[in-house]
Amino acid sequence: MGMSAEDKRTVSPRDEEWPEAEKAEKLARGAALKWASGVFYRPEKLEGLGQYRSRETQRNSSIQSRLKSTIQSYLEGGLQQMRALMAEHVQLASVVQVLPQLFSVHEVFSHTLQLLSGQQLLEAHAELMMMEHLRDDILSQLHLRGLSSAQATVLSYFGGLQELNESLAKQLWDIVGSSLRLVREDPVLFVTAVRIIEREEKIDDTLLLEATFLPPGRPKGWRQKFYHVLQETITGAHFHAAHMDTEGPGLARHLAALQKDIVSELRVVKDLMVQCVPAHYNILRVCTVTYHQALISHLQDILREDLDKQALFLLLEWALRVYHSPEMMGHPDLLPEVDVSALGPLMSPELVDQTERKYVVKVKASVLEWMQRTLEVEFKEWFREEEPETDHQGFFQSALPVIVMQMLNENIRVASLITDSLQQKVYNMALEELEAFLGRLREALVQCGKEHQKDRTIPKYYVSYLLAMLNNNLALSSSVSFLHPDTAHREVPMSLRAALDRMQKKACQLLLEELLLDLQPLCLQLPSRKWLSGSQLISSMCEVIDKYAKDFSRVRKPIFMLLLTESELLVTSQYLRALMQKKMVCKSEEERGQLCDRLLQDATQLRELFCGLGLDQSQQSLEAVFALRELICLKDPALLSLEVLGFITKYPDVSDEHISTLLDLRGDVSKEVRHMVLEMMAQHPQVLPERYRPIFSTILVPAPELPFCLRKGKCA
């Protein structure tokens, strides 16, 4: 079907431009006419006409929507390129607007550098702030417009700002580093630096609170850097030495210099620097804390070295005494503004205790060395060809106790200047070393005694030096309780008392052995018929005893009485031992009578001798000789049991062998009486009283001679 004139008139220019659309429209109209003809020819289908209309409307809407989407996609491909070009054009336009200002930046940079080189810091900083403000303002505008690509272009013009900042900062930190000198010589320069730092701090604070973005290099934090540089200056000037003399004299000079410099510098801070900085800087407190913390670290570094005792003492004294004294942090010029009491100690209690223990170890080594040298000198003096020195009363002595006690006293006194705990540590060490020294001194006496046994002429004044050692020991014993300054802590330990006692006993023993060596040749002559008939044997013994007693008088009275008592006991035991050697048996009653008389005369002579020397009769053991004489003098052997019972009651350490030997000495005791006496002793066992001085227990009785036997069988 051809196109009517009306159809031709309705053809739009778009149809001529798009022939495919015209063709599609013709096909659609033909299909619609065909469908409509069918409907009109079949009336029953007219009822679905409304549904058809609705369906076609929806389909047309869908087609139109797809068409619009297709056309829009096609168009946007060219619009995106146009948008990018438009954005670039806007950015360039923004940059072009500030080009006059950007072109002037390099000229300002050069001028600012000239100002810095001339130390015109405030002017230089003003220009620096102006340029930073310009840069930040431009960057802020670009940031708000989302023109990030233009920021790099702008920043390229301000690359020199970092150099200017670094140059200015270097000058500021040099000034801060010289602040202690400048506040005395040129405070204006220091104040200028502080003003610049405060300007920057305000800019930092403002940007952190208000800015939508932080410009490059912000926040600068120059106030914090000010504190850091000041603290580094303080610590670097005094505490960062690569090598320091830690020996006593060198360390003393170092600590004295620290004391002087710290007081001087804090005085400058308090009187001058405080006026140059804002109050909120709290500069005096900052410097005080810096010195305090640096000293804590410095002392710890020093204590890591192997210090001698003098250096350890100096550190303890300086940290615990000098630091808080009016000579240093308690100086009148610093009070009351400077107060380190709330900063804690320079040395913690643990470090103090550790350092005190190190000090005690060093002192102990020194004391040990000194005592050993003293002992060596003392030992050599024993072999001199002259007697030991005497005091104003004529008592033998040597310098040993004075040297030892002065050394110990001085160490304890010095320790008391630091702390009570150090004093107690040194005191305990002193007692331990004194006890060890007494042990070595005793060993030296033993060695000297061995040398003397080999040749009794060496040492020449052996007895005199033993007596001097007894006086020395007595002096040490009386002085040791005064070592501790506090009377409440003067109790001498039992172990030290025991060491002093052992020393005294050894010297007394060696003296008594010497007396014994001179008595033994005389004791070997009794009992004998010659002695029984009235020889001068006991007189000779008395001469020996008297000679030794005169020597013993060169010791002080307590020791003299001890030696006298022990000598009397020695003489008694030697006399009794000689009687019990089974050398003689009385052959008759007359001979027993002679024996009784001789015993009475000997015991009386000896008793009178010792009484004359000052030993009271009640303290003598010679009474045993008188009691033994009664056993010998008893006329009726049948009464021996009763007499022996009284004897063993008085002398409970006497044994069956002792009594049997005495019965043999009588020469008239039958087997029956002997058996009766020994049976009685068995029925009356004795217990030694607590304070009984043994006499017979040290006397050995010779074993009875056994009959000769050829075989092991029973002898006839």
Automatic annotation (TrEMBL):
It comes from Accipiter nisus (Eurasian sparrowhawk). Residues 1-23 are annotated as: Disordered. One of its GO terms (cellular component) is transport vesicle. InterPro entries: EXOC3/Sec6, EXOC3/Sec6_C. It comes from the Eukaryota. Interacts with EXOC2, EXOC4 and EXOC5; may be part of the exocyst. Its main location: cytoplasm. Keywords: Cytoplasmic vesicle, Exocytosis. Pfam families: Sec6. It is found in: Cytoplasmic vesicle, Secretory vesicle. This is Exocyst complex component 3-like protein. Belongs to the SEC6 family. GO terms for biological process: exocyst localization; exocytosis. As part of the exocyst, may play a role in regulated exocytosis of insulin granules. One of its GO terms (molecular function) is SNARE binding.
